[in-house]
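Archive entry. Fields below.
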Amino acid sequence: MIYSKTLDPDFKHLISKEPGGERIKRCFSCGTCTASCPVREVTDRYNPRKIIRMALLGMKKEVLSSQFIWLCSSCYTCYERCPQNVQIPELMNAIKNIAVREGYTPPVMKAQIDLLSSHGRLLEITEFENEKRTESQLPLLQSRIEDVKMILKELGLYHEEEREPS
Amino acid sequence: MKKNGNHPKNNVYTLFLGCTVPVRTLNYEIAARKVAKALHIQIEDISDFCCCGYPIKSISHHAYLLMAARNLALAEAKGHSVCTLCSSCGGSLAEANYELQEDKELRKKINEDLYRWFRLRYEGEVNVFHFARILYQEIGTREIEARVRADLSSLRIAPHYGCHYTKPSAIHGRPEDPENPKSLDELIRATGAQVLNYEDRLSCCGGGVLAMDEQVALGMAQKKLDHIHVQQADAMVLICPFCSVMYESNQKKIEKLFQKEYKLPVLFYPQLLGLALGFEPDELGLKMNRIRTTDLTKKIVRKPD
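PREDICTED_STRUCTURE:
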């Protein structure tokens, strides 16, 4: 049962102001996204039509705190097929951006932010990689890119003092 | 020529490696550089490219644009189009590029941060192409056919397009129908190998959800391995390091989890092309492929010079 008192009618407006979320109100729930979705084929925990419907109804807390918004694989199949051009993978990112600001970042994403801040990349380039590159006559790569840490720090996405000592 | 997706026409490119290629699929890079040289595509490098920005997109759109724009600004200073090996990097950079080219106000905002922090500025003058797109559109299948030095006609190959190579089609300038792409089929056929059709050939590898939910991701990859197995393919050929992580690096795990046996070799297209051009398997990093490729390479007959 959904109780109207618990709904936030402004949630859809909040989403539509977010980059990527602009087209949410166009959705008429046809379900082409869900029917096309390769993630949905494997698990019923991800259902884009349902997520959009919940968001339009104003189920803010349920949507933002859920795990399911993080299960889009960004394959863009629904993006190509949506008759209303809702651009669902971008919409999911808009919702996720709001979830992050409201404090619902999943631990695995926090770990990715840490990696990016430390190395400027998701996977660290160590001496080992550069040795292999030398052996294979490939140009060497920089092992650290401080600029990424700067971006993440300046935007308040990375707080050095919160990092666990390694 | 500002918009992406037009024909790549310049044969000098700045190579964007991204995070996965240099650490997990060096064989892809080795083979790509070999075939690029053989086909007179000149590759330049920028050692301080950072992550393309894709992983941060779900956290902050602004941070994503800044990371992508930093890379694009560095490439712009070099003056060449960007060539990516990773489809995800290609999609991510092309998408950010599209936004920054279309929306001047947004570009101004991003440039303020780029300049304040890094003394960089991006004017929207760079094009981003996937290496396979360059091979298909700039070199072309006829040229490839003319250069084939080995007989691959006994090989049965299952193409895997992946997602970001063709989609979202609007930001790539819709170079082909994303629901029925043909470029990889034709590139494989140009090497002389046979192209297999199989169920759900355009489905996603699952890589995008691997970090969030391994079980779901492996389930997605398993379906495709199953469909290709039915066709008795000699190999799967793909063009993205992350797809390869799903189908090759995780193949044993998938076999164990789902009680199946595939032993399906997974090659990067430049490796297959390199074999056709007459390179030795070792020159193309085939030793680094985790699923043995020797049964496949034994079937190749070198043509007399």
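CURATOR_NOTE: Chain B touches chain A through 53 residues (CB under 8 Å).
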